[in-house]
Every structure is written in C-alpha cells, then in structure tokens.
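Tokens in:
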C-alpha cells in the first residue's frame, strides 16, 4: 500500500516518522545489550524485537491516517528535533555498550530511563481520533512500554541481591 501523505498534516507525519526511528534506535540498543551480556541475551532480544514491532506498528498508524486523514487531528505537538536528540543519545549509549564502557547495571538503568521518557512524553497521545485500530495500537505500545520498564526494574533488583 502506497501512503498518500499529501493530505496528512506534515507535522504529524514527521512526528510519527521520528517515533519509528526512536523505536528502531531503542531496539538496536537492546540488541547490542544482548550481544554484550549473552547470559541475558534472550531477555534483551525479546525487548529488542518488541521495539522493532513498535516501529512497524507506528508505520501501520501512518497507513491508517493516510487511508482516512479526516479521522485524525494532531492533539499534541511533538518536536521532531527533541526526538532526534533522544535518538542521538540512545545511539551514543549503544556505542558505549558495544565498546564495553557501560556495566549491565548502568545499561538497565538507562533502559528504565528510556522507557520512562517514552511514557512521560506521552508520544502516543499526540493524535485525536476515534479510530479503534489506531487507538488499539497506541494502547498496545504503551502497555508494552510499561512492561519493559517493569522488567528492567526487576532485573536491577535481581542484580542487587
């Protein structure tokens, strides 16, 4: 399906595209963690896979908007340059993981901070719509984000014992 984005608000499209990049960057960080700490490799790979799924889900959100743009209105502005700054920080952390500059504990704390940032910025509440498919995708992403945060916090607690 080819997305005809000319009828969608550019700011909304750019914001969602930035969120795709954000989710992919987070997924790459978690993949790097799976390589760096193979004893927890399955855990890291699972959350990395879910981040990649989030990116694909946002692409589905873009398709829903393109299909019926009249059902969607920007509710909250997301500054794309702010998301780009977050992505740059995540990419820097990924390189630190790859070059053995971060401990597992630090990586877990960074992961909690990333997941918190996504929830606190309410990136997935930026669109006003009654479209049930769109709302379901947003809800699923936020639920998984909360789960990720909880799993990371549990891993931190396990390291303390």
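Residues out:
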């Amino acid at each position: 399906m080819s997305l005809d984005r000319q009828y969608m608000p550019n700011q909304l499209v750019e914001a969602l595209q930035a969120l795709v990049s954000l989710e992919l960057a987070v997924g790459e960080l978690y993949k790097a963690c799976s390589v760096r700490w193979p004893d927890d490799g399955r855990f890291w790979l699972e959350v990395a896979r879910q981040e990649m799924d989030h990116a694909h889900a946002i692409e589905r959100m873009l398709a829903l908007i393109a299909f019926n743009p009249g059902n969607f209105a920007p509710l909250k502005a997301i500054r794309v340059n702010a998301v780009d700054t977050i992505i740059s920080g995540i990419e820097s952390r990924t390189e630190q993981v790859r070059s053995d500059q971060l401990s597992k504990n630090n990586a877990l704390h960074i992961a909690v901070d990333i997941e918190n940032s996504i929830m606190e910025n309410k990136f997935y509440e930026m669109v006003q719509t009654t479209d049930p498919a769109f709302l379901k995708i947003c809800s699923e992403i936020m639920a998984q984000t909360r789960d990720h945060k909880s799993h990371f916090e549990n891993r931190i607690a396990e390291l303390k014992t």
